[in-house]
Amino acid sequence: MKKVYINSIASISPQKTFDSSEFLNEIIIHEDQVVFAVEPVYKDYIPPAAARRMAKGIKMGVVASKMALREAGLEQVDAIITGTGMGCLRDSEKFLSGIIDNNEQFLTPTSFIQSTHNTVGGQIALELQCKGYNFTYVHGSNSFESALMDAKLQLELEEAENILIGGVDELADYTTKLNKIIHHIKDKKTSSHNLLDSKTKGAVFGEGANFFVLSNKKQATAYAEVVSVKIFNTLSESDVAETALSFLKENNLTVEAIDAIVLGRNGDVEFDGFYTKLSLSLFSNTPQICYKHLIGEFNTASPFGIWLASKILKTQNVPNVLKWNEKNTSSYNTILLYNQYRGENHSFIILKSC
């Protein structure tokens, strides 16, 4: 089967990541329970008249996709695959509020039309006039991983040559309030500086869009090879280390072969134990990297981990703000990524330099 390469990357997040020439050169310190994306100038990518009709999530997704395509030097792809946990939340809330406020009468359909989960993928296809395979996965915090597995299979089997994949989620007021009530969001404002050591329940929520062009042909712009992806709906804390070791063995790798591990630690004292099991046992001598203190937690936060792992493999540099321990290595060739959300939807991904 063909190998699968990440030929370009693009990220819009609560950090200034939309400039692909930089790698977290300037860190924004957040001091809140929710953190919002730092947005580029949308009129540079989307006509202002069109942008006004788009919700934030759609704009982030469309612009991030254009950035990824531009870096890959492509005007067209064979398929578009997106992942989203909550879809276009703002339009969903707007439509439902309209139903209540107008007593279920005199409703305009615009918000409903734009509230569906596949709106971002559809909008990107309209912009590109792409009539190929277009699919959106809504699998909670494994939504992006499902899109990645789909794209990887198609490329390995040569059913496509270039595939645009991405993950996007946005914050919305009412849903944020609900998450605060059920304590999925932290009760008090927490600084990025000490979020991962906060020892309190809940996470800081964020938003963003991360897009990648995957191909079975390596370009000069290539960042990494996607070696393997595996997801699990449920795992116990005691099984995480054994599962990780089994995953490595399936790919003929040892713990010592892993140059860094990227962990989805988010500062939730109830569920960070999954990461602690790995960091204190199998990977105690491996450089450990964390990122959710910079961008918050959301269903498609994990592709930001792929974005930064790709950057690390290409630049051979790890910004200090990402380091969870003091271990170092002379070069980064193989990186393991592990993520879970509230004890469910566990994912393991291996990336290699190419």
From TrEMBL:
List the molecular function annotations (GO) for this entry: 3-oxoacyl-[acyl-carrier-protein] synthase activity
Which GO biological process entries does UniProt record here? fatty acid biosynthetic process
What InterPro entries is this protein classified in?
A: Beta-ketoacyl_synthase (IPR000794), Ketoacyl_synth_N (IPR014030), Thiolase-like (IPR016039)
The highest taxon in the source lineage is Bacteria
Every Beta-ketoacyl synthase-like N-terminal domain range: 46-220
Please list which residues make up the signal peptide.
none
Q: Which UniProt keywords apply?
A: Transferase
Q: Under the cellular component aspect of Gene Ontology, which terms does the record hold?
A: cytosol
Task: Name the PANTHER family for this protein.
Answer: 3-OXOACYL-[ACYL-CARRIER-PROTEIN] SYNTHASE, MITOCHONDRIAL, POLYKETIDE SYNTHASE-RELATED
Instruction: Spell out the protein name for this chain.
Output: 3-oxoacyl-[acyl-carrier protein] reductase
State the species of origin: Xanthomarina gelatinilytica
